[in-house]
């Protein structure tokens, strides 16, 4: 079993939110390159809302960026690139599901990754609409 994680799940690897203990137990996550934008955005939003101090936000962002760019020995992620194939698949998915643009990219990344590696069967997501779409695409939802 390999787990694809959208950014709502990936943020939990760094910030203490409901479900963080579940996400932190997964040793390797498959993620979309769009997380490079969404995770920092979520962490800075938490800072602006007073949920994280400036120091906490900077530290968590630093940890994420280290994992994203520098983890060579045992990387915590496999990153699906933002390619024209992914973007075209995302555009097609918006016809079937009421997804925001980046959510469609997340789902397209997961679908294409699962086609390349049938062990990718679970989709870690806390966003309701993306969760529904992922289930309709045949993924087992994480958490159940």
How would you describe what is shown here?
With 144 residues, the protein is α/β, with parallel strands linked by helices. The protein has a domain at 2-33 and 76-142: Rossmann fold. 54% of the residues lie in helices and 14% in strands. The chain is built from seven helices and five strands. The chain has a five-stranded parallel sheet. Strand 4 (120-124), helix 7 and strand 5 (140-142) form a beta-alpha-beta unit. It starts with a strand and ends with a strand. The model has no long low-confidence stretch (mean pLDDT 95).
Brief descriptors of the model:
single chain, 14% strand, 54% helix, 144 residues, Rossmann fold, alpha/beta, five-stranded parallel sheet, globular
Biggest sheet: strand arrangement: 3-2-1-4-5
Unreliable stretches covering 5 or more consecutive residues? none
Strand content: 5-15%
So what's the CATH class of the domain at 2-33 and 76-142? Alpha Beta
> What kind of assembly state do the chains in view correspond to?
single chain
Main β-sheet description: 5 strands, parallel
Per CATH, the architecture of the domain at 2-33 and 76-142 is 3-Layer(aba) Sandwich
Mass-distribution shape = globular
Taking the alpha carbons of the first and last residues, their distance comes to 14 Å
Number of helices: 7
Series of secondary-structure elements, N-terminal to C-terminal: EHHEHHEHHEHE
Helix content: 40-55%
**Quantity of strands, as a count:** 5
What does the average pLDDT come to? 95
Alpha-beta content class = alpha/beta
CATH homologous superfamily of the domain at 2-33 and 76-142, by name? Answer: 5'-nuclease
What is the radius of gyration? Answer: 15 Å
CATH topology of the domain at 2-33 and 76-142: the name is: Rossmann fold
């Amino acid at each position: 079993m390999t787990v694809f994680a959208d950014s709502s799940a990936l943020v939990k690897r760094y910030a203490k939110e409901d479900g963080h203990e579940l996400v932190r137990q997964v040793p390797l996550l498959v993620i979309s390159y769009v997380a490079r934008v969404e995770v920092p955005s979520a962490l800075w939003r938490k800072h602006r809302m007073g949920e994280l101090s400036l120091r906490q936000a900077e530290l968590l962002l630093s940890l994420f960026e280290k994992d994203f760019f520098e983890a060579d020995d045992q990387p915590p992620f496999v990153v699906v690139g933002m390619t024209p194939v992914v973007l075209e698949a995302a555009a097609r998915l918006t016809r079937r599901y009421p997804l925001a643009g980046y959510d469609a990219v997340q789902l397209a990344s997961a679908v294409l990754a699962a086609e390349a590696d049938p062990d990718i069967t679970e989709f870690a997501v806390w966003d309701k609409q993306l969760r529904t779409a992922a289930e309709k695409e045949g993924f087992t939802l994480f958490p159940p």
